[in-house]
Amino acid sequence: MGKFHGQKTVVPLHSTESKVAICIIGWYVTSLLTLWTNRYVVAKLRVDSNFLSLAQLSMSVAGGLGSEIYLVGWTICKSGLRQVLDNGLKDMVLLAGARVLTVLLGLTALKYIAVSFTQTIKSSAPFFTVLLTSFLLGQSTTWKVNCSLIPIVMGLIFCSLSDSSFHVIGFVAALLSNCVDCIQNVVTKRLFNRSYSTSQLQFYTSLIAVVMQLMYIVYNWLASPPATVREFSETDRSAAFVFLVLILDGTCFYIQSAFAYALMSMVSPVTHSVINCVKRAMLVFLSIYHYGEDVTSLNWSGMVLVIVGVYGFNAASRLERENLSAKGLIAASAIVETSTIDALFEIRIGGKR
């Protein structure tokens, strides 16, 4: 199905390097804007997380549809949609559900705990990936990979004990967001192996996710009076302003994913994971500065431990993959491909999100 999307052209090296640099800068900036806008919408404007999630996914549908029409045309786009309905609907629904949960859990975490603490928890994704892969797939990792998880766990404990914004609901939501995100990565990898392109995955899963989100909102509205209307009236912002902010947030959300996809297509998973690790650290430190959060020495120690642990996990995973490749067991290294800190994670649009 992805044959029209997979055609590659040879480009000069300096041109590729320029594109990589542009994608990194664009990804960092839009990720920061999305994160801060999410916090503003749920904490200041007090918009229900379901509506913010719907806005983000709707913009992904619009952007994904535009990309599909631009890349392959409307006729082939409709043909691809029919093939998804016939052959890949089950996996698409599962991935769409994971996307909705990841976004909602991430927004819930932002509502209750500090932005820097949320990003620190999200940086611990390798720990949860190894656990889930072991339980769900029965795959084991080397002692080096397991040892690299120790500073990640210690860092989370330090941050949890010393963070003034700690809230049980926010903390659990961030942890569950990581778990769902890991499951999402496994499903995404399966669909990539079935020749779906990134634009197809983004469009089809976003479309299904929007339908699921609308069904839940309608059900919730019928079950009880919508609290969001009352919350809007308690703010000093007009409905038009809130709507524009939601559009801006959704646009940043989509562009962030587009930059991540483009970067993923030009660099190796290991390079992508290192760039993502740097991005997480940047989001943590800039959020601390922007929001003026009180940070203790134990907080700093915890954040540094998590970042160092993630870097160690990347290095250990790379060594494990190289050893398996040298022994001719590359097929057994799926754990490395799917767990190397979010090599496919930007399908969410977790962060995540």
UniProtKB/TrEMBL annotation:
The chain crosses the membrane at residues 20-38, 50-72, 92-113, 149-180, 201-219, 239-262, 298-317. GO terms for cellular component: membrane. Pfam families: TPT (PF03151). Its main location: membrane. The keyword Transcription does not apply. It is found in: Membrane. The keyword Transmembrane applies. Residues 19-312 form the Sugar phosphate transporter domain. Keywords: Membrane, Transmembrane, Transmembrane helix. It is a multi-pass membrane protein. This is Sugar phosphate transporter domain-containing protein.
